[in-house]
Amino acid sequence: MLTNAPRGTKDILPEQATNWLRLENKIRELCNLYGYEEIRTPTFEHTELFLRGIGEGTDVVDKEMYTFKDRGDRSITLRPENTASVVRAYLQNKLYANAGLVKLFYIGSMFRYDRPQAGRLREFHQFGVEALGEKNPAVDAEIILLAWEFLKSLGLDDLTLKINTVGCPACRPIFRRKLTEYFTENADDLCGDCRRRLEKNPLRILDCKVDADKDFMDDAPRIETCLCDDCREHFNALKKFLTAANVEFTVDNRLVRGLDYYTKTAFEIQFAPLGAQSAVAGGGRYDGLIREIGGDDTPAVGFAAGMERILLALELQNLLPAQDKKITAYIVAGGSAAETYAFKLLTDLRRKNISAAMDFGKKSMKAQMKAAVKSGAKFALIVGEDEVATSTVTVKNLETSAQEKVSVAEVSEKIS
Prior knowledge:
The protein is α+β, with helices and mostly antiparallel strands. Helix content is 37%, strand content 21%. The chain folds into two domains: 14-171 and 227-316, BirA Bifunctional Protein, domain 2; 329-415, Anticodon-binding domain (Rossmann fold). The protein has helices at 14-34, 47-54, 59-64, 83-92, 137-153, 172-185, 192-200, 229-244, 289-293, 307-316, 336-351, 365-375, 385-390, 411-415, and strands at 37-38, 44-46, 67-69, 75-78, 102-111, 123-132, 159-165, 250-251, 263-271, 279-285, 300-306, 329-333, 356-358, 379-383, 392-397, 403-407. The strands form three sheets. The chain has an eight-stranded mixed sheet with strand order 1-5-6-11-10-9-7-8, sandwiched between helices. Strands 13-12-14-15-16 form a five-stranded mixed sheet, sandwiched between helices.
């Protein structure tokens, strides 16, 4: 139906937009504190960017991307995530030329063909940060701390930080081989998706929600037994930095995240009351992505947070502030001459940064007074033939019902 939005999309109505604006302002405030600058990338990119960046065999690429041919027969994809786009912009615009560490953040719409549910839509919004050009695990800790402090600053409780390491190209193949051998022995018990993952990307099996509670999953190989010295040292340093910052965390050996470009650090922040979709922020290090897309070997780390889920979490904890729709003044006009007079008054008040409204439907003055009360305005400014003739305005305090006539030049000062 033309009157319904496409499934998996949602209108953000005026009473909700205020909460979005507050959230975005908090994001910009905190990112400025940490020294991250905003970047805005295109809503769609060449499909190859995501195939190479995210990785074939992932659910995102295989099942969820919105991909189409444009009129030039080019394959285009609505961005399912923004890290690959940020890396593309970093390379195309040579952001690496003037600084060793480039710190960026973004806010925007992403698109995945997923089963719509609470806090999970097909068009959804993410806030994310990316730090490009530094391999020190202290940067990983800073990224995690920014995500943690952001969520805590909103007043959220019941947050859990889970971290893991997913190795690097030097040690992950060993882990991959062990997983393949182990899950091949249990292939008959795997779900259909995981049997396909067994050949393409066995790490994804660890992240499967269908097989998660099956007995054989508990005995699956752990990457800690396969780590090279560099990955082990990096992970141990990360834990020390988080401990120094007094951030509690849990090591989760099954945490691999849903995108192939992660190396070493992976993390997720969960809000338990959301249930199965409890992750509100997550990310990790992606040292190989920039080379994969066409740049030099460049270390990088980042995270993304789902804004719909955060707002849902705030709602569950009654942390969304009450909406304040009140205006300062509502102008009530009687007669055509008074209407022009009232419109000039309306314009003058707004130019002096005083919120004001008036009726445009030519209702009776009695109906306009009812509208003034309903609007929540503090003052009704009444103008009729007498006021027009004497260049005055009758100011009525709608809270006390007291009223007085003042010159039109003194109205703004009176109600301020």
